[in-house]
UniProtKB/TrEMBL annotation:
Main localization, broad class: membrane
Record's GO cellular component terms: plasma membrane
Any one Gene Ontology BP term: amino acid transport
Pfam families assigned to the protein according to its UniProt record, in alphabetical order: SNF (PF00209)
Subcellular location, record wording: Membrane
UniProt source species: Pipra filicauda
Ranges annotated as spanning the membrane: 24-45, 57-79, 131-149, 161-185, 205-227, 353-374, 395-420, 426-449, 470-493, 519-544
GO molecular function, one term: metal ion binding
Primary gene name: LOC113987072
Residues noted as binding Na(+) in the record, renumbered to the chain: G32, A34, V35, N39, S216, N248, L365, S369
Name the UniProt record assigns to this protein: Sodium-dependent neutral amino acid transporter B(0)AT3-like isoform X2
């Protein structure tokens, strides 16, 4: 008799695997994995480049509530100190000690400290440079901390997550309170929350919104699947998915408020400095009394002098001071965290304390995300019996962290910053879209939506409604396909390029736009393609394995039948 595949799933027996101490620990681990550096430095950047108005980014929130919830639910089921003065605040002297360092003087002290003192970056990706010992030391320290926190899987990460997931919210709240007291904070918040609905006509906005929310929740990395595998079989996964999706999206908005408060403060300070330089030039040129021209009456004085002494004003070559231009100056990723935000922190009272708090927060965000990444490798190795379950967890975690450390050594080269961008852009984008697409297709069309619906009802106690069935059948695969095609199309419009920090570039301190050499482009293709090839290769492996097993079963059945037939031709000994 054939087995009824639609029957109610059996409750797995106790398998000796560790379990979460409580539901809050599990939810906190998922939130810590999902909420990462992208929520702090990429979401505000995208708001900024698309006009500043978060109203246009309501699109991303709506996409989040649908897009993340749907895909997360599918995925979750598939498994059943610084000293004064600050080193970045003053330019060092040149080699002859006769003046300031030229590279620093032409850019800023913060840029110089980051690109030259910290990264010692090369002007071209083809120039590897040397391994920076201080970066290797920092890298080894970080991986040692990750190892200690993940040494026994969720048994240790479950304890550490209480600190690494909650601490960033505490720091963001402190920055929020401090940021709102800074001059110019209201200008930054007005820039953030003033809607610019015209940007919704730009297809790029929709694409950026979809990709940002998709990657923000860390879908298709495997960490959420690994975390969920330690839950009890009957679990309200719908509620969990909605909770994590909403918290993730709200965190992006919440983090944007202190970020834009501080960026508003920085823009206002830069605007005031611009006005003060112009005022000083005018006072010296026209021999006016000090404080005769103030920021408040600067515009009226300029109008008067332009009409009475236009030639003198033109000769001064005054800078154009516009607060909106300073607010529009956008930067993402490490640029936002280590350059723009650092420049703002320097201007804040008690800058050392704020710097320490800010960078510990960034470290905590990265650490909690790493827990999920490590667990996404650790759990499958054991559960798929790729590694024997008798292997000590401490040894397996150590091997994973050691291999990761060795691979990451390429990021400590002089060209390491360029390689980080490549890994982020290609290894962490296209493969995730492809994996998520096949996950949805696999559940809906291979496993079949009817069987999946019965399983969900058994797990949650609620019947799968029509909305979820329609979205899983059609909308989710279609959205993923559209985002994937749009992403690839945008990449093909122009050759892959990168922004190089080159002090010899004529436009310095602006970065020089360079095209990747052919061999680097080949690596980019490999980084995007290799993870995707695992899907058909594993499918082919299981297909061959299944056919071989069926063939072996048929041969055994035939032999048994032949033996039975042969034995029936011989008389029984008693006969």
């Amino acid at each position: 008799m054939s087995k009824d595949l639609s029957a109610t799933p059996e409750i797995p027996k106790e398998d000796g695997r560790p379990k979460w101490d409580n539901k809050f620990q599990y939810i906190l681990s998922c939130i810590g994995f999902a909420v990462g550096l992208g929520n702090v430095w990429r979401f505000p950047y995208l708001c900024q480049i698309h006009g500043g108005g978060v109203g246009s980014w309501v699109v991303s929130i709506l996409v989040s509530l649908y897009y993340n919830t749907v895909l997360t639910w599918v995925m979750w089921y598939l498994i059943n100190s610084f000293q004064e003065p600050l080193p970045w605040s003053v330019c060092p002297l040149n080699a002859n000690r006769t003046g300031f360092n030229k590279e620093c003087y032409e850019s800023t002290a913060v840029n110089y400290f980051w690109y030259r003192k910290t990264l010692n970056i090369t002007p071209d990706i083809a120039e590897n440079g040397t391994l920076q010992w201080w970066l290797i030391l920092c890298l080894a320290t970080c991986w040692a901390i990750v190892y200690l926190c993940t040494i026994r899987g969720i048994e240790t990460t479950g304890k550490a997550i209480y600190v690494t997931a909650i601490f960033p919210y505490l720091v963001l709240t402190i920055f929020l309170i401090q940021g709102l007291t800074l001059p110019g904070a209201t200008d930054g918040l007005a820039y953030l929350f003033t809607p610019n609905l015209n940007t919704l006509k730009n297809p790029r906005v929709w694409l950026d919104a979809a990709t940002q929310i998709f990657f923000s929740l860390s879908l298709a990395f495997g960490g959420l699947i690994a975390f969920s595998s330690y839950n009890l079989p009957k679990n309200d996964c719908e509620k969990d998915a909605v909770t994590v999706a909403i918290v993730n999206s709200m965190t992006s908005l919440y983090a944007s408020i202190p970020v834009f408060s501080v960026l508003g403060f920085k823009a206002t300070t830069a605007y005031w400095d611009c006005l003060d330089r112009n005022i000083m030039s005018i006072i010296n040129e026209f021999d006016l009394p000090e404080e005769s021209i103030m920021r408040q009456n600067y515009t009226s004085w300029i109008s008067f002098l332009n009409s009475s002494h236009p030639e003198k004003i033109a000769g001064l070559k005054l800078k154009s001071c516009d607060l909106q231009e300073f607010l529009d100056q956008s930067v993402s990723g490490t640029g936002l965290a280590f350059i723009v935000f650092t420049q703002a922190i320097i201007l804040m009272p008690g800058s050392q304390a704020w710097a320490i708090l800010f960078f510990i927060m960034l470290f905590s965000l990265g650490l909690s995300s790493m827990f999920g990444n490590i667990e996404g490798v650790f759990t499958p190795l054991l559960e798929l019996q790729i590694v024997s379950k008798s292997t000590p967890k401490e040894l397996l975690s150590g091997i994973i962290c050691l291999i990761s450390f060795l691979i990451a050594l390429c990021f400590t080269l002089g060209s390491g910053s360029y390689w980080i961008d490549i890994f982020d852009r290609y290894a962490g984008s296209v493969p995730l879209l492809v994996i998520a697409f096949f996950e949805v297709i696999g559940v809906v069309y291979v496993y079949k939506i009817k069987r999946f619906s019965k399983d969900v009802k058994w797990m949650t106690g609620r019947k799968l409604n029509l909305y979820w069935q329609i979205t899983w059948r059609f909308i989710s695969p279609l959205l993923l396909l559209i985002v994937f095609m749009a992403f690839v199309a945008l990449q093909m419009l122009r050759p892959p390029s990168y922004a190089a920090w080159n002090p010899k570039y004529e436009g310095f301190p602006m970065k020089e736009e360079k095209v990747y050499p052919p061999w680097v482009q080949a690596i980019c293709v490999l980084l995007a393609a290799l993870p995707c090839t695992c899907i058909p290769l594993v499918a082919l492996f299981h297909l061959i394995k299944q056919k071989r097993r069926s063939k072996d079963t048929s041969l055994v059945s035939a032999e048994v039948f032949s033996c039975q037939g042969a034995n029936s031709n011989f008389p029984h000994p008693k006969e």
